[in-house]
Design a protein that fits this description.
Layout lengths: L8 E2 L3 H6 L3 E5 L2 E6 L3 H10 L1 E5 L4 E6 L3 H8 L12 E7 L5 E11 L2 E6 L4 H14 L64 E3 L5 E3 L9 E5 L2 E7 L4 E7 L3 H7 L3 E3 L12 E6 L2 E6 L8 E7 L3 H12 L4 E3 L2 H10 L34 H4 L8 E6 L11 E4 L2 E11 L6 E7 L9 E6 L2 E8 L9
Parallel strand pairs: 1-3, 4-18
Antiparallel strand pairs: 2-3, 4-13, 5-8, 5-12, 6-7, 7-8, 9-10, 11-12, 13-17, 14-15, 15-16, 16-17, 19-22, 19-24, 20-21, 20-23, 21-22, 23-24
């Protein structure tokens, strides 16, 4: 007997989207707004003024305890233990094969506490990876102290991918597979339900404020072992996530009635950093991150206060050009900025170096999930490149890329760039065809469209 699929979940802002006349799509198991007016108008608003996005379908996990930093060093590809409190870092969850299970952003909220945000379609996969890692991780006897000074990366790190549909009618399917079991028999401890200790708000050692919230019942576990205490909690259902993006974002947020920044001031907050605030008395987590290529903020707030915050921001931003934006505009924005999308540029069949993310992996760590698999990848695996074309016909995901008469790759994402006025695309191609300036062609429904390999990103905002 075939089971009836569960209806898609709705955002805490669903009523607001319906009132604004949004078109919806089932994405990652959520019924989310794809557009309100037109993709082009919403895209341009973000580049020229500001856009407000509901990204509440994203998944949030809290990782806390004495062993939290060392545990994340094991379960993620990057080195998280050296992060400063108040900073954010892009990282990857890898399979044992070295393939990408998901890309995430990690925020250090205290000496022993972190917030991890992952993609909606990979929520279960990331939860399973955390659970499995708790049972297979053999911690070192010492937990690294947070670094007092960590050099900032020379270039911006790609934002985590929010699963969003192409502006065309086709919508990518979200990933649903969970990680394969990690080899090994030693365990830290048997997982147990998380306690209720993580409630309310707190201030971390050193005076850095943190925002704490009740943990959900889903995907939680706590343990104490050789590396110290550890608790992992899926808190997705406790929060809404709203992205305010564009050159007017700071002015709009600082003018929104009810918003009070109690931590680092917005004009002092660095990129890939977060600060604490309140909205009408509710805790507000404000991160200077995003997925559009523009400056802006991602706002995490308890679900009960999400609609009032959305309303207040739209009202104060109306005179500054702020508009509500759907996921289709978000997709063309991230494409212009050269940011990867899970299921397109990232998957379990792709290792980080192929996608230009080799620098995200701390290969010198003694142990982390996927390390052995990364050392055995094929040398001739296709690599991710940018392609630019003239005219109006754009390559789309799945279209073949040719070098002469030979098929050398495939488009992963493509569109007519609203900002640049010509087609852009990302594609995986053979290494021999990946050099900047190489002349290729795209098979667009039987017609070959000339394309040139170019460096990513296609668009970079003015500082």
């Amino acid at each position: 007997m075939t089971e009836t699929p569960a209806p898609p979940r709705t955002s805490p802002l669903n009523d607001r989207h319906e009132a604004l006349g949004a078109s919806f799509t089932d994405f990652g198991g959520w019924n989310m707004p794809v557009r309100y007016t037109s993709d082009l108008a919403e895209h341009r608003a973000v580049r020229e003024a500001a856009g407000l996005f509901d990204i509440s379908h994203m998944a949030e996990f809290r990782v806390e305890g004495e062993a939290a930093a060392a545990f994340l060093d094991y379960v993620l590809a990057g080195r998280l233990s050296t992060m400063k409190i108040g900073k954010a870092k892009y990282s990857l969850v890898l399979a044992e094969s070295g393939g990408i299970v998901d890309d995430v952003i990690v925020y250090r909220t205290g000496e022993q506490s972190f917030l991890v945000i992952s993609n909606a379609g990979n929520r279960d996969a990331v939860a399973a990876a955390f659970d499995l890692a708790q049972r297979t991780w053999v911690p070192a006897t010492e937990v690294p102290e947070p670094a007092t000074e960590v050099p900032e990366p020379a270039t911006e790190v790609p934002e985590p991918a929010t699963e969003v549909p192409e502006p065309a009618t086709e919508v990518p399917e979200p990933a649903t597979e969970v990680p394969e079991p990690v080899e090994g028999t030693k365990t830290l401890a048997t997982a147990a339900p998380a306690s209720d200790a993580s409630t309310g708000s707190a201030t971390a050692a050193g005076g850095t404020p943190t925002v704490a919230a009740p943990a959900s019942d889903a995907s939680t576990g706590s343990a104490t072992g050789a590396g110290g205490s550890l608790a992992v909690a899926d808190v997705t259902d406790d929060y809404a996530l709203i992205a305010l993006q564009g050159p007017e974002a700071r002015g709009i947020l600082s003018s929104t009635p009810g918003v009070e920044i109690t931590g680092t001031a917005l004009d002092e907050l660095g990129y890939y950093a977060w600060t604490e605030g309140t909205f009408q008395g509710a805790p507000l987590f404000v991160a200077r991150t995003g997925y559009t290529g523009e400056d802006g903020y991602e706002l995490m707030i308890p679900t009960a206060q999400a609609a009032p915050l959305w309303d207040a921001a739209l009202a104060v931003g109306a005179d500054r050009g702020l508009v509500p934006c759907g996921l289709a505009a978000r997709d063309t924005l991230r494409l212009e900025a050269g940011m990867p999308l899970y299921g397109h540029e990232l998957s379990r069949d792709i290792v980080p170096a192929q996608a230009g993310l080799g620098r995200v992996v701390a290969v010198d760590k003694e142990a982390f999930i996927g390390k052995d698999g990364l050392s055995s990848g094929p040398a001739d695996a296709p690599v991710l490149v940018g392609l630019v074309s003239e005219g109006r016909r754009a390559g789309r995901a799945g279209y073949a890329v040719l070098h002469g008469d030979d098929t050398v790759g495939e488009i992963t994402s493509g569109a007519l760039s609203p900002t640049l006025g010509h087609p852009v695309a990302m594609a995986f191609v053979a290494p021999a065809a990946s050099a900047i300036g190489t002349e290729l062609s795209i098979d667009v429904r039987g017609t070959r469209i000339p394309a040139t390999v170019t460096a990513l990103p296609f668009y970079r905002r003015n500082a």
